[in-house]
# Entry
Amino acid sequence: MTASDRRRAEEPEAPSTGGVNRPRHDHRFDRVWLDAHLCTMAPRGEDPLGVIEDGAIAAKDGRIAWVGKRSDLPAAAEVTTRCDGAWILPGLIDCHTHLVFGGNRAREFEMRLEGASYEDIAKAGGGILSTVRATRAASEDDLVASALPRLDALLAEGVTTVEVKSGYGLDLDTEARMLRAARRLGQARAVSVATSLLAAHAVPPESAGRAADYVRHVADGILPAIAAEGLADAVDAFTDSAIAFTPEETARVFDAAQRHGLRVKLHADQLRDDGGAALAARYGALSADHIEYANPDGIAAMARAGTVGVLLPGAFYFIRETKQPDLAAMRAAGLRLALATDLNPGSSPAPSVLLMLNMGCTLFRLTVAEALAGVTRHAAAALGFDDRGMLAPGLRCDLALFAVSRPAELCYWIGRNTCVGRVVNGR
Ligand code: NIG
Ligand code: FE
# Structure
């Protein structure tokens, strides 16, 4: 919403006369949104989107206090926002990003166009390790400054919660600096930031050939120090038997996370089937992400464990993966699916959740309802949040407003931002 729209929209309601047709102000609500259609994402009967046409939302103290048909709205509020027929969704949640990093990898992009593969580049010391060099050389201020424009691109699309991983430091100082930069992003902008320690992203150059030693250092050195400083909300790892960590090495990191009371997430089965899905399930992971190569047994185990499957179509597209995630097995198992940008310099330089909605539908054949749940309700679950992701009383009043004719339009446009407003914590 532009400033002038907002001025027009935010008319204080005229003082109530107490007439029969006029709702009285009371102290139940401090703000209401009217002239909107709601995509509550709280499934109702046959409708997975929980649509309420001609709806209204009321907030009190940053929480949603009331949701329903406008005609049923029980009271007025001090501030009324008229939404010109916009569709309101829960604020979008990008549950998997590597938003904080130094440099970029446009040169490797060129190399790939000249024939090198993502794996070739990683094995030749490029890939993740080239971003590690750039990130180690960056100050905390540099990291914040370079991340802000990427974060702003997400916010402009209606994102109100974003997850940010470390993983380009691979030493305690730099991992901590990345996570402090991530926390600062949440102070610099109106957005919730959830942080994940991804020290087990790659073997650092100084430990080349000694993965086991590095894993021990992550488990006994980096992770306890990060936990003590409260810098991480969860612990992530990259299981890949060829270019990252084996399932056994990953398990050592996860054991340490559990000793420190931190939930885990996993980059799993992205380039081959390493049994990552089953491993994530065994540790009750919040999510297993990528999972193109996850097998049906691993997928079923995830569903039983309540582990969310996070699909990352930006990385699938950018590295020109051809193995589709096994959506049939995921649906059969009743696996909750989220959808995220994986925003990172190497495999998904894509600061756009709306683009992921389109790619999730186009590349993976998600339905509109699945895709939208993937950036709201299920994305919240992938971060362990039960206070957001739907429009329902008691939840955080985080909203995203879109000038679209129907929810499907959010998935339909390629590279067009229809977001016209964003509300965080009721403001
Ligand atoms: O999620 N899979 C591993 N990590 C990132 C890529 C990181 C990079 O290439 O810099 C991912 O795709
Ligand atoms: Fe990732």
